[in-house]
Fold this sequence. Notes:
Blueprint: E1 2-10, H1 13-44, H2 50-54, H3 57-63, H4 72-94, E2 112-115, E3 123-126, E4 131-134, E5 138-143, E6 151-160, E7 163-171, E8 183-188, E9 193-197, E10 202-204, H5 207-225, H6 231-265, E11 268-272, H7 274-280, H8 285-291, H9 293-307, E12 310-314, E13 338-340, E14 347-349, H10 350-363
Parallel strand pairs: 8-11, 11-12
Antiparallel strand pairs: 1-5, 1-7, 2-6, 3-4, 4-5, 6-7, 8-9, 9-10, 13-14
Amino acid sequence: MLKAFKYRLYPTQPQLRDLDRTLMLCRSLYNAALQERREAYRKAGKTVGFYEQKRYLPEIRTELPEYKGVHSQVLQNVIERVDRAFQGFFRRVKAGQKAGYPRFKGKGRYDSFTFPQAGTTGVKLQGGGKRVLLYGIGSVKVKLHRPLEGRLKTATVKREGEHWYIVFTCEVEPRPLPPNDQAIGIDLGTNPHFLVTSEGERVEAPRYFQKAQAKLAAAQRSLARKKRGSNRRKQARKRVAKLHRKIANQRRDFHHKLARKLVNHYGTIAHEDLNILGLARSRTAKGVLDAGWAQFLAILAYKAEEAGRRVIGVDPKHTSQDCPVCGHREKRPLWVREYTCPQCGTLLHRDVAAARNILARARTEPAGTWAAWAVP
Length: 376
Ligand SMILES: [Zn+2]
């Protein structure tokens, strides 16, 4: 299985320029490849494929010498990204979903490049892990705050605000935990609960996280008051971006700890399938993204797989309307949090009842069904 390791890079000034230039060249190539596909599609109704576009790369490197400073596989990966954008587009069209045509990447909207075979070419750790040699950039200082494990597969160099990072993905052996026949259902909560379990536990986002969000809101208001093009506005924008990153890190940390706890205690964890959830419930898509459930479920699925545990995503339809004891179905307004089942007289809390229904549904799924979530 693949595991990601993210480390901060400390490039020198000339290296910074080379990193920015590499991003710029990759972005131009991305947009050119996109343009070619769009035109082929519009004019002839035919599609230009990944391999067809890949074949032009040596030619590009001969005619535009600046591309020689970028590793050929990094350029191939750019073509692959265009390909993936199109495949995603066609998949959504086919599924009858709302599908935006793949878009050109503006400046600042293209912030990473990838060495797809970093284990063999383009990237090399040096000086006992204090530096990393990147093709076209040079030997860049890196801080490995935790050791790299497994067999190196890919490396992505990434800009986040003013900082640069490298994300290695490595093939690691799963480390199964002892078998555990405990099972739990989780209902992805509405404020202030992040989730509610079938055992009645309510998990809130940590306080420091809520505080940081209040700070961010204040910084955003302050930014809105600054004059366009002014230096103060620039400063305020930096502050907002910095807080955004801090919150994203805190959220990820919270997700990791919570997922770890669940995986350590339960052999089977059932949750609502988010792909269906958006349509089935009166929660907006934005609310789903804000709480970061997709990220949490991806981390949970990943940790479970590593530990040999099972995570199951179930159809969330009616989970908040059914009585988990007798199955009586009744639609209630969202604000009704506690009620007594009119059929069997059980006192129920809405979210706990939903979590218990989710667990009951998972029990009917065939063993070994994994919820398919990509690791972020
Ligand atoms: Zn009942």
